[in-house]
């Protein structure tokens, strides 16, 4: 083993550990791994930069804009709402919306579909007295099953397509994957509405859990007007000057002044006599509040979160995204109030409320924040990719500002481009370029909106991962790993090799991210096919599907993360419901690949 090969393996293993341990954002970790190959001379400057001009990566960037335009149209949301309607049974409703979601996810980025529909599904479930946990995991899983059907169904497919083009291969056509994945998707949907439905939990969402216990988390203090012996030292001071900003374990979320409710509370907000100050957090730390001169504890408060809201204010749940700028920062360091016109009432992780000082909580992907939001929150949240809003917003633009002509134009243009790609007139990359240009010219989406929806950190991760994969090829590490894989599975024949390749890809997907897993397994799949003398396409399709078929945890795939908190799920729910589905998809995929190519 050469030093280059050993170094490559060490870097990849270190990268995997860092991704699992969440030392930093995934794109930063993979980029650092790429730079290490450049600094040591394993990769040339052109090889390092190649991923940033890869056709598959650029197509993913264009699809972010296309998906944003379709999401803005509101057609998917309205269509699903009308389909749900008043069905004969819960399972009938589930089937009615899973099929079109799977179909839509085959042609659109599934993340915005799930983001858009999560609040819609929750609202429908509340109106029909159904637990949203019976519908939200199926929503995510159906979008994943749709994503493995076509080239444009998910970014992973486009990433592998780009890698194939770099290797001088033909790449995927629009429906290459469907020849293998269609049976798996059909069986997966049937499982979700039958046996899988029984395994789904009947959890309350976090909003309801908190609503039931909100009094346990809220404390009310009165700013005394007649303070003994001297004027109240709190009165006419700002919140910061009064020492109410960085308290130990409690967090000022609102002020009630006469009939006015002030939130989110800014550092500069002046305190007046007889103000009622509402705190949330560790009520066991209330002693610090009682020690504040001029404040008096109001015992037996009848304040609840619902009573705090103004006419235009809302209680909103949001889920911290993978690409959030808030990640790994403490809430007090993010200037949350100023940025989003909302205060954090509670933070939930793994469906459990984090019992520590809210300002000191370091945010991670999938954290669910319960916010007391002001009037500007909706507009500001639409301009951010920091979190997914999973509560129906009363003034959501989709409800009030839909231009039906532009909405249908966006669908029609995309449909025409898909048809042209299907019959081989133009490539997927060229089709998406034309689509985006037409959207901008027809003002279906503005330049600012397009720029805002391009997830740069995802593109950086993909581009950097291309370089890491190139290093595995170039140093011979991929060949060595493929040989070890074949030796390990040799007693079980070629089916054993396929199964082990699929399992490794699935494990990597659940541990890190789907795109990183796909890029890491691509060179190993090619080398394994070459050593066995088999058609590489069979092995590449296998890892493409395995990299996207993430059903075992909320971490491996963004759509699973989005529904994690809103469904009130536990980590084990994904294993319980997702394990049989994973086995169905794996078995079907391996059998189809063997039947068609081997």
TrEMBL record:
Signal peptide: none annotated. It is found in: Membrane. Its main location: membrane. The chain crosses the membrane at residues 6-21, 28-44, 56-76, 97-115, 135-160, 172-193, 413-442, 454-473, 493-526, 538-557, 577-597. The keyword Coiled coil does not apply. PROSITE patterns: NA_SULFATE (PS01271), RCK_C (PS51202). InterPro entries: Cit_transptr-like_dom, DASS-Related_Transporters, Na/sul_symport_CS, RCK_C, RCK_C_sf. It comes from the Bacteria. The keyword Repeat applies. Residues 205-295, 303-388 form the RCK C-terminal domain. Keywords: Membrane, Repeat, Transmembrane, Transmembrane helix, Transport. It is a multi-pass membrane protein. Coiled coil: none annotated. This is SLC13 family permease. It comes from Aquibacillus rhizosphaerae.
């Amino acid at each position: 083993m050469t030093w280059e090969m050993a170094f490559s393996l060490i870097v990849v293993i270190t990268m995997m550990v860092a991704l699992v341990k969440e030392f930093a954002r995934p794109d930063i970790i993979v980029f650092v791994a790429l730079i290490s190959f450049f600094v040591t001379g394993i990769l040339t400057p052109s090889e390092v930069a190649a991923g940033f001009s890869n056709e598959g990566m650029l197509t993913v960037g264009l699809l972010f804009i296309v998906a944003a335009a379709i999401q803005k149209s509101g057609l998917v949301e309205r269509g699903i709402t009308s389909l749900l309607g008043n069905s004969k049974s819960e399972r009938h409703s589930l089937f009615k919306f899973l099929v079109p979601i799977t179909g839509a996810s085959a042609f659109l980025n599934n993340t915005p579909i799930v983001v858009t529909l999560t609040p819609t599904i929750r609202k429908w479930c509340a109106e029909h007295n159904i637990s949203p946990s019976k519908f939200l995991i199926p929503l995510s899983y159906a979008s994943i099953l749709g994503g493995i059907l076509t080239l444009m169904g998910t970014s992973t497919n486009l990433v592998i397509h780009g890698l194939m083009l770099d290797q001088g291969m033909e790449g995927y056509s629009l429906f290459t994957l469907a020849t293998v994945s269609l049976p798996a998707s059909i069986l997966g949907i049937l499982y979700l509405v039958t046996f899988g439905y029984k395994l789904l939990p009947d959890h309350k969402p976090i909003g309801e859990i908190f609503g039931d216990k909100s009094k346990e988390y809220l404390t009310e203090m009165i700013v005394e007007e007649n303070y003994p012996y001297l004027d109240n030292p709190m009165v006419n001071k700002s919140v910061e000057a009064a020492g109410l900003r960085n308290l130990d374990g409690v967090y000022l979320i609102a002020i009630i002044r006469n009939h006015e409710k002030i939130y989110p509370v800014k550092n500069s907000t002046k305190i007046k006599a007889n103000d009622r100050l509402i705190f949330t957090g560790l009520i066991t730390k209330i002693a610090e509040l009682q020690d504040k001169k001029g404040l008096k504890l109001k015992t037996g408060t009848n304040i609840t979160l619902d009573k705090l809201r103004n006419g235009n204010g809302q209680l909103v749940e949001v889920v911290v995204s993978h690409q959030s700028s808030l990640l790994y920062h403490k809430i007090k360091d993010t200037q949350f109030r100023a940025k989003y016109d909302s205060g954090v009432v509670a933070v939930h992780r793994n469906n459990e409320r984090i019992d520590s000082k809210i300002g000191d909580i370091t945010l991670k992907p999938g954290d669910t924040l319960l916010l007391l939001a002001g009037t500007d929150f909706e507009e500001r949240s639409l301009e951010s990719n920091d979190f997914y809003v999973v509560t129906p917003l009363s003034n959501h633009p989709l409800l009030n500002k839909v231009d039906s002509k532009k909405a249908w134009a966006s669908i029609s243009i995309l449909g025409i481009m898909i048809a042209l790609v299907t019959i081989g007139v133009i490539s997927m990359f060229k089709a998406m370029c034309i689509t985006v240009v037409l959207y901008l010219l027809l003002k279906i989406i503005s330049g600012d909106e397009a720029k805002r929806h391009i997830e740069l950190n995802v593109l950086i991760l993909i581009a950097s991962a291309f370089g890491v994969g190139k290093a595995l090829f170039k140093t011979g590490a991929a060949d060595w790993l493929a040989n070890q894989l074949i030796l390990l599975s040799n007693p079980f024949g070629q089916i054993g090799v396929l199964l082990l390749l699929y399992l490794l890809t699935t494990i990597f997907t659940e541990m890190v991210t789907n795109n990183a897993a796909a890029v890491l397994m691509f060179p190993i799949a090619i080398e394994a096919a070459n050593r066995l003398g088999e058609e590489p396409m069979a092995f590449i399709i296998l890892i493409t599907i395995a990299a996207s078929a993430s059903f075992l945890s909320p971490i491996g795939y963004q759509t699973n993360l989005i529904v994690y908190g809103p469904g009130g799920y536990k980590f084990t729910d994904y294993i319980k419901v997702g394990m049989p589905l994973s086995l169905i998809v794996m078995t079907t995929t391996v059998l189809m690949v063997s039947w068609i190519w081997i």
